[in-house]
Structure prediction request, 187 residues.
Amino acid sequence: MIGSLRGKVLFKEGLKLIIEIGGIGYRVWVSQKIWAKSKIGDQILIYTYTHVKEEALELFGFEDPLDLKLFESLITVPGVGPKTAMSVFSFSDREGITSAVMKGDVDFFTAVPRLGRKNAQKIIIELKNKFGDTGELDLSEASNEVITALKTFGFSAREISDAIRNIENSEDTPEKKIKAALKYLGK
Prediction:
């Protein structure tokens, strides 16, 4: 699996970039936003998802590891493949997608090319269950670490949500935030 690529943008076509690293060009599917701002010759760092099919190996790239995590959640939804999930990212950013899931906004997803009403509803149901009550809060790496730690300790989505809101304005390290959350939850 290829987890990330750092190299020079060699070529742009469709919503794909060719990124050259050590004389080898990797073709990577990217969102409209990344494609538009990438210039030939630019140095770029992309976090990648490697999709293996019988006849091909495809890479899908993101600027932020949290975008990659949301992408991986999207493709777990039955009927949503990597190209459809990338269309969602071309349509909106992580915050917009997460907000649409939490609000149950079917119209948001049906406006995305390649997505019909049934799959839009599936995305909302599947991801809302995964996010629980913490989906809207899962926007920073520090909060993500706190959520993961609290889930490991067996706290419910409601308890985690309350704890995150209580420590949300804190600019401490993730470790200090976890301690503050545990203190808030009485552990």
Notes: Residues 109 and 115 are 7 Å apart (CA to CA). The two ends are 39 Å apart (CA to CA). The longest helix spans residues 117-131.
